[in-house]
Amino acid sequence: MELDFQKNPDILREIVDAMAVGVFTVDAGGRFVAWSQGAERITGYPSRDVIGKPCTLLEGPNCKGFGTLAELLRTPQQVPSGICNQECKVMSKEGAELYIHGNVRLMFDAAGAVAGAVGTFTDLTEFVRANEKIAILERQATVEGAFEQLVGTSREMQDVFRRLKLAADSDVAVLITGESGTGKELAAQAIHARSARRDRPFLAINCSALPETLLESELFGHVKGAFTGAVQDKLGLFEAAQGGTLFLDEIGDVSPAVQVKLLRVLQEREVRRVGDSRTRAVDIRLVTATNRDLKQLMTEGRIREDFYYRIHVFEIRLPPLRKRKEDIPLLANHFVGQLCQAGNRGPNGLARDALQRMMNYDWPGNVRQLRNAIEHACVTVSGDRITVLDLPSEVRLPESNQAAVSQPAMSEEERAERERIVDALRKTGGNRTKAAELLGTSRVTLWKKIGRYAIDVDA
């Protein structure tokens, strides 16, 4: 069946009204002559409110293409083709912002004078809003949500990121303070990665993990024969980090004797190996960290005053996780992606009950404990989401319930096994994978025994 529009113009009108786009016509004076049902659906204005009115309805802020329909009708020479595209933000009848895109074609009479115009427009509001939302999320994820390996959008972490940037742009000694597990070494790495020394070495050492004599040798190096067992010259960390950054963790545990030698290196910019008579020039950026109150240690005589002020040039304090709980969902999902989804395996997120319990927990071990909890869940999870049942018992059970859980008396053999596990965890700095290797067992078996013996992994 053929459609004869000339004999039955209502067919054409029905087709136009069925279109998703808005269609309209205006006369030479810029007054609406026709207004399709598509135009009504988009703007909310029925044709009775539009026909015969000036075409200012389709004029709004941020218009691109032409100024106004009336202006186009008055000065058609500005558009030689007679066709003009339009992008505009206008208001619907209900007062909502609409983003529209359309085009207008001028119509001319037999004498060549402008007789009016016909136009169409499409509603792009959902598309524009979706892109704005994506842009915000991308900005949060790439700019506001992370600084190198540190993650957080809270006000506290934004302030940390700001100070890290300031530290990276300078070369002063930096002291990073905060509780255990807050990410002090990651902060030191971030400073190095953003600094002018980024292409040189970054070396780190935990000063509390070594006895004084061994720490001195590690820091400054030694020459052959300096002490029993020194069978050859050894390069110290100050020399090995030449041109780069040296990170001294747990600086509050360094003895006053080592403090004196560190102070000399920082002031003179030269190091003397243990047992050597000559000095060697060094050029390093020093970053230190502690979870202790250095001022209190200074009062007690365990930290020298001159040493304290030499390392305390610029302080960055990392907040505990309980003070920035709004970062927990971001951190948890970050660790799920990092620890669980290697090789496209494992869960793809957290169930609501798990996330709620994590938000209600105080995390005494801070971000390190949160990471460990997610790693534990990656082992125990069976579905596509981590649930509250997959979390470690100390997180899963409310504190009141934990106190009520009675532990059966352990046999001598069990107590000995518990001590071996605790000792292995201490030796490996809480790393369960390395501890399992040290004990000659699997990581899953070790996890079960940690839960069975109620071992605090972060202790």
What do you see in this structure?
This protein has 19 helices and 16 strands. By secondary structure, it is of the alpha/beta class. It has helices at residues 9-18, 37-43, 69-74, 125-144, 155-168, 184-194, 212-220, 237-240, 256-268, 294-299, 305-311, 328-340, 352-360, 366-380, 393-396, 399-404, 412-427, 432-439, 443-452; strands spanning 22-27, 32-35, 83-91, 97-108, 114-123, 146-147, 150-151, 174-177, 202-206, 221-222, 234-235, 245-249, 270-271, 280-281, 285-290, 314-317. Mean pLDDT is 83; it is low at 62-66, 136-144 and 400-407. It has 3 domains: 9-128, 2-Layer Sandwich (Beta-Lactamase), CATH 3.30.450; 145-319, P-loop containing nucleotide triphosphate hydrolases (Rossmann fold, 3-Layer(aba) Sandwich), CATH 3.40.50.300; 323-452, Helicase, Ruva Protein, domain 3, CATH 1.10.8. 41% of the residues lie in helices and 17% in strands. It has a 5-stranded antiparallel sheet with strand order 2-1-5-4-3. A 5-stranded parallel sheet has the order 9-12-15-8-16. A two-stranded antiparallel ribbon has the order 6-7.
